[in-house]
Each structure stands twice: as C-alpha cells, then as structure tokens.
Amino acid sequence: HKKINSICCIGAGYVGGPTCAVIAAKNPHVKVTIVDLNAARIAAWNSDKLPIYEPGLDEVVKTARGRNLFFSTDVEGGILDADLIFVSVNTPTKIKGIGAGFAADLGYVESATRKIAEVAKSDKIVVEKSTVPCRTAQSMRYILEANAKPDIKFDILSNPEFLAEGTAISDLFYPDRVLIGSLDTESGRSAAASLADVYAGWVARDQIITMNLWSSELSKLAANAILAQRISSINALSAICEATGADIDEVSYACGLDSRIGPKFLKASVGFGGSCFQKDILNLVYLSESLHLPEVATYWKQVVEMNEYQKRRFTNRVISCLFNTLTGKKIAVFGFAFKKDTGDTRESPAITLVNYFREEKAYISIYDPQVDEAQIWMDLTEPGVVDETEAVKRQVSIAADPYKAAAGADAIVICTEWNEFRDTALDYQQIYKEMKKPAFIFDGRLILDAKKLGRIGFKVETIGRPRTTFVQTTDFE
Ligand code: NAI
Asked: Given the CA of residue 165, which atom of ligand 1 is nearest to it?
C-alpha cells in the first residue's frame, strides 16, 4: 500500500486542529497542512494565542508548527499537495427544511468534497473525520466520481474522532481505539492500511481497528448515543434521589463498582452539553425515522428529552428555594463552558439556565475562566434576527472573577465543574460575607462539600440530594 507523505485537513476546528497537530507531532516526516475558510481562525492557529483552549495543545503545536505542520487559508493548495485529505468540517443540526431540528446539515461536507473533486490532479484518499449519518461516504463517492478529472481515483475512508474536549490531547495520545472504515475491496483495504500507518506513528497496531465503512460511520453515532444515555440515566435517577433521600453520588458509586457497568460517565449534573451529544443523537433519531423505525427513534429521543427536563428541573428548584420568585434577585452563575477545561460553550447548559433566569426577571452575573465575553453575548442573543444585546445587558453582566460575580448575590449556581470553583480553591467564607442572606449555593455539578459550606452559613442545594431548605406549602415543584 501507498505511503502517505503529505496530509491536508479541511477544517481547523476543535477536531481538525488538535487531531492533525498530533499527527504532525508524531510523524515528523509527514507534511500536514490544516486549511480553513475562516481566516481569523487560521491567523490564531499561527499566533501565540491558539483559537481553542485545550490542556497540552500549545506544546504540541509548538513542536511541529513550521516544521511539518502548517495552517493556511489556501484550501486548493492544501488539496493539490496531499496524498490523504481529512474532511473535518462542522456538521450542525439543520435549522430549516426537511429534517430541521434533527438531521445533520451536510452542506459543509458536500462543499469540501466538491472542492476536492474540482481541484485534485492526482489520486487521493479522502477521509471522513466529521461525524456524519450512516452512508454519507456513498454521497461523497457520487460527488467525487461525478466531478473528478478522468483517470483520477478516490478512496473514501471513515475515521471518526473519539476525542473529548478538555482532554483532547491525552485522548489523542492514548486513544482507546482508532477506527478506520473502508469498502471491502482491494483498493479500500489498501487505503485503510495507508491511514493505519499514520496512526501507527504512536498508536499500538492492535488498537487500530479496521472495519466496514458503514459500521464505522454508525459506531460514532452509537458511541455518543450510549455515552449520553448513561448521563441521562443517572440524571433520571437523580430526580428520584431528590424525592426520596437517596444520594446520587452514592448510587452512582454503588452501580459503577459493577464491572459490567463501570464508573465512568455516571456523574449526575445539570445536564450534558457540547456540540456533539445532542446533535448526534438527533441525527440517529432522524436516521431511524427515515429507515421507518419509529420505536427506535423514540427510544433515543428520550435521552435528549431527559436532558432538557434536567435543566428545567434544576431551574425550578432554584426558583422554588428562592421563595418562588427570582424577580430583581441577583444570581451568580459560576461557569459558562459546557464542561471544565474547555472554552467551548456550544449547547452549554449554562445558556439554557441563564435564559430561564432571565425569563424570571433575575439579574445574572456570569464568571468563567476560559470563555470570552464576546462569546457569552453571542450565546445569549439570537444572532441575525434583531440585536438583543442591549436588552440582555440590562439583566446580565460578566464578572472578572468569582468574588465579583457573587458580591451582593442571592444565590450562586454552579454550572461548570471547573476545579477553581471547589471549596478547596475558593474562599467561600469571603464570598459568604458579601452575599445577601440567606445565601444559597446550587451545586449543579456535585463538586462542593455541602457540610463544610453549610457550616459557613450557606444554604446548599445539590443535584441528586434531597432539598435542605424550607419548602413552602404553595410550592409548585
Ligand atoms: P468546528 O466548527 O470547530 O470546525 C469546523 C471548521 O470547518 C470551521 O472552522 C469551518 O470554518 C471549517 N469549514 C467548514 N466548511 C469548510 C470548507 N468547505 N472548507 C474549509 N473549511 C471549512 O467543528 P468541530 O467541533 O471541529 O467538529 C467537526 C466535526 O467533528 C463535526 O462533524 C463534529 O461532529 C465532529 N466531532 C467533534 C468533536 C468535538 O469534540 N468537537 C468530537 C468528535 C467529532
């Protein structure tokens, strides 16, 4: 099989950037060019302040950038030069048209594929890195074959990415597995072997799995659906805990000790976020419906519905503990990213919560160690429609540190599990002094020692633990 000397990655996002930076760092003899239409993003990749925050990413980029790793807006040049091309563009949920709200918008994948067909002057291996519905490779093949110059051959591989934001670099360095799907033809198997060699630069051969193209595509959707299902399962149980006196951390611990279940992804929370889980499950739901499998669609859809319910339920608890009204009260929101160690806010539960608090006429002060102010304003407004930023700013402010966010507040709501919010890291005694009384903390991530904070004087309300504060008889929960 062919040896890969030059790789192009189309899409310099959360996946394309870190993945191909690691490929370059681990394969110094392979030239890796990451291209994107977004010039600002490429400029940031070429600067000292990378466009995304990931622990360990700076060092990886520094090792390889300018040596065999390049970031460029020259998409055509990147394609021309490459033996192998990763398509790592975004695949958001469609917002309009058939399948709106469920199906993946494959417009970016299609336009990248058309570009490859138009530009390529030699044979290419085209790799789907983006998460796509099962059988997308088939559409890519039609487009490539219908538009390519004569005598040019394309092999299409599926190579879904399993990294998690916040731990992207260690996930890439030590993957559980690398999955490569190909057609079961000689040329398909040979293309898969070429890509496997690239990963073998640092991954053990027995962790590089090859399989049929459609299994590989579906495995990525399946893995995300099962991971999200675990979270929705534990969150559903957290509601039972709150109503009975059981403690979700104890239940989770007990269940996780069963070797058939295992302890990971069993932490209750205010809900999952991130660009992938919801999108990929909805995608699976749409796929099931289009295959005339309504029961299967309903089954997976419930995982997303449980997540929405959890955010609403947690908000209701905040309102009800604060004597059934948030009007004019100040709520400090600790954390805006969808999880710790990332600046990514896509589908972050904090966005939903802040919107609910706004509807209740609260004032909200947000602090997050990694999210830019501009990003927060963008997330809290509907872009393109009318500029609501002024209206949002009348109710929402962004604080420079957690102490300022909490000063004068009626309640703190922990939305992201940043280590710096732990009671071992922040001076909660100081925070308590500056808050209105009774001072509430709503721990949506189970990161606080409720007893310790209780001794300071806080009313601590934790997801998955029974309510501690006085319940009014008119309580609507
Ligand atoms: P992203 O939105 O951060 O990056 C995609 C990039 O592609 C953007 O910078 C965009 O400008 C660029 N792009 C779009 N069309 C282009 C074109 N025709 N030519 C050149 N550049 C183009 O998206 P992200 O998060 O990197 O996700 C990419 C894919 O990977 C998605 O399908 C996602 O589902 C999947 N994925 C994401 C994971 C994550 O943790 N974010 C994990 C695993 C898979």
From this structure: 40
Residues 195 and 254 in one domain: no
- pTM of the complete model beyond 0.90: yes
Residues recorded for the chain: 477
Active-site positions read: 276
91 lines ligand 1 (CB under 6 A): yes
What is the tens place of the pLDDT at every residue in 65-119? 999 999 999 999 999 999 999 999 999 988 889 888 888 899 999 999 999 999 9
Tell me what ipTM this predicted complex has: 0.98
Long-range residue pairs from 185-191, CB within 8 A, at least 24 positions apart, any chain:
187/153, 187/155, 188/155, 188/157, 188/213, 190/1, 190/2, 190/155, 191/1, 191/2, 191/125, 191/155, 191/157
Distance 335 CA to ligand 1 centre (A): 24
Question: What's the rounded Cα separation, in Å, for the pair 153 and 90?
Answer: 25
Residue 1 lies in a domain: no
CATH number at residue 326: 3.40.50.720
160 Cα nearest atom in ligand 1:
44
Q: What is the C-alpha separation between 403 and 222, in angstroms, rounded?
A: 42
- Alpha carbon nearest to ligand 1 atom 29, residue: 130
